[in-house]
Amino acid sequence: MALELKQVTVRFDGTQLFEPVSLRVEPGMVTTVMGPSGCGKSTLLAAVVGDLAPVFSLSGDVVLGGQSLLNYPMEQRHIGLLYQDDLLFPHMNVGQNLGFALSAGMPRQERRARIADYLALAGLEGYADRDVASLSGGQRARVSLLRTLMAAPRAVLLDEPFSKLDTALRGQFRDWVFGTLKEGGIPALQVTHDVEDCGDGPVYLLQEGRLA
Fold it and tell me: Which residues form the ABC transporter domain (predicted)?
């Protein structure tokens, strides 16, 4: 299914932050919106996922799989988020962090098998009982993405998730993320200020309130 933004714009105290944005993200594709800090990139993602603060107002439409999302709260939009901070729970081990994305009613044996399968996909076999504090930055980033994917999102938003990784890991993790999304047929909308993080999908520039 595709993710579509139709004439989406956000206002703060009556002031329009950017001109209406219209774009379509095809299944398995990563579409990127680039722009400097403060141009409204993260606010655009918040509008898509339904997490705008009350001081903002939204116009236009956000459509996923042909269905408007505007009347659905954030938790019912089935959109995953991947930030530059991994946001793992420090009091939980790796398996418990991943299990947080699964249904509470799932049998324990099935839950452990599902977690093990996903860890294997990321090259982290046997890491379920590891303390998250013992993980490297790249490993934490992979666990964070796995947790996002295990929630079975219909689309994924990427808010500069590679910016805090060192150069050696950045390209490898970025390629793995894009490949995983492509294989799963999941549309992804990314915002970044770094051209190196763009994939082979469409790239737009948000600058001075205009998307080009």
Answer: 3-211
- Alpha-carbon torsion 86, 77, 41, 13, what sign? negative
| Average of per-residue pLDDT values in the chain | 90
To 10 degrees, the CA torsion angle through 99, 144, 31, 197? Answer: -160
Distance CA 204, CA 212 (A): 6
Rounded CA separation 199/169 (Å) = 16
pTM of the model: 0.87
CA dist., res. 27 & res. 1, Å (int): 6
Give the tens place of pLDDT for each residue, 2-58.
Answer: 999 999 999 998 899 999 999 999 999 999 999 888 888 989 999 999 999 999 999
Give the C-alpha separation, 2 to 161, whole Å.
Answer: 22
Class of 3-78+153-211 per CATH? alpha beta
